[in-house]
Amino acid sequence: MLLNTTLDDTSPLIKYTNPPYQPPGSFLWGSSTSGDVCKDLYFNSSFTGTDVNQATMSLTFSGTGIWIYGANRINHGNFSVSIDAQDFGPFSGYANDNSCANLSDFKVLLFGQTGLSMGAHNVILTNIPINTTCNWVDVDFIQFETQIGDAGAQAQTSTIDDSSGQFNYSSGWSTSISTGQTSYYDGTVHEAINAQASVVITFEGQAISLFGGVDTSYGTFEAVMDSEPQISLDAQSYGFYPQTLLYHANSLGEGVHRLTLSNGASSFDVDYATIWSTGTASDTTDGPGPPGSNNTPIGAIVGGVVGGVIFIALVVALLKYWQYRRRKEERVEADIFFDSIPRPMISIPVQHTSSPVGLHPSQQDQHSPQPPPQPNGPLSPIQEPPNHHGELQVLQHLKHNRPSGGIPMRGTPRAITTKNLK
Fold first, then answer.
1. Smaller CB count within 10 Å for the chain: N or C?
2. What is the H or E stretch that residue 49 is in?
3. What pLDDT, in 10s, does the model give residues 145-183?
4. Which long-range contacts (CB under 8 A, 24 or more apart) does 361-367 make?
5. Spelled out in words, what is the top-level CATH class assigned to the domain 155-279?
């Protein structure tokens, strides 16, 4: 997936370089801007600026895009940008407004570049004054884009505080500072108070961002990732700013890694670290593009909608199948119950006249229907009832719903004659 990492202007990862020649009274990179009346309109109420010609700001990053933000003000001049020795500009940072009223002049995108190949890149911003009054440039914050894992993969984010067992400290650390401790993550911090005090952070993931404070009294420290070359960083700043990005590394590959930090001659502190690895995202991370861009995952939304429709269709189909099976079972049960009821088949010869009324029982026996003569030999499986002189022989199936105890049939089956059918 693509991830955006934001560096405030005070991050030690940003290098500010003043040229060898500096006119008297110049405002150098790193000078305090805390007295500026518009400082609160900048990100985190801080910015770094200069009026020195050819003063540069540089950043080495591993990613696919970068965006540099600053301000357009009445005393600003021109500047140029280069990425991997490819030049862009000059660009103007001038705005005809000497107040802080126009908010659109702050947190302005000074330069942006996307579509870079994933890997290490170097960006340099150079101040180019127009004249002695329009000679400023400032940097508010920088954001760069990098890829974590394969394209389309989700990133799992975890945060480990400085008090976690994944931080292994040597001697020479303090867990309290004189001022500003409540401004740190979870209210905890480790400050290196002895030279060469070190900490080893063990983690599993593809990228790490380490946060801590910068201050006027802080100094340099060394960082080593696994067996990579050592790099030197400087936590000294023109003011106290906690939770600042001190170190970042990506494209590490999955597995266990070790980040070792060692104090220089002064001091620095560590606050917490954020780890990224491929998997199911647990925390929201910035997507590609500069702040304010819409990073809605369209593919994920479409996939979710399609999956939901398929799920509903399956539920409906299963419900209909269940109803069909239930109706079928009910019909089978009804047929079994019905077939279990005796159904006598009675052959009734057709009579041309109704049975005599009021006959003596002996006389009634004479008029009682006699069964037809049986042929000699075995019966055939199906025998056709005889039909004498157009008489209708009817097999009447008598159906009675009876309890299990049985109820004897009452009455005599009625003979059906051709007269009855007229």
1. C
2. strand 48-50
3. 998 877 777 888 999 999 999 999 999 999 988 878 899
4. none
5. mainly beta
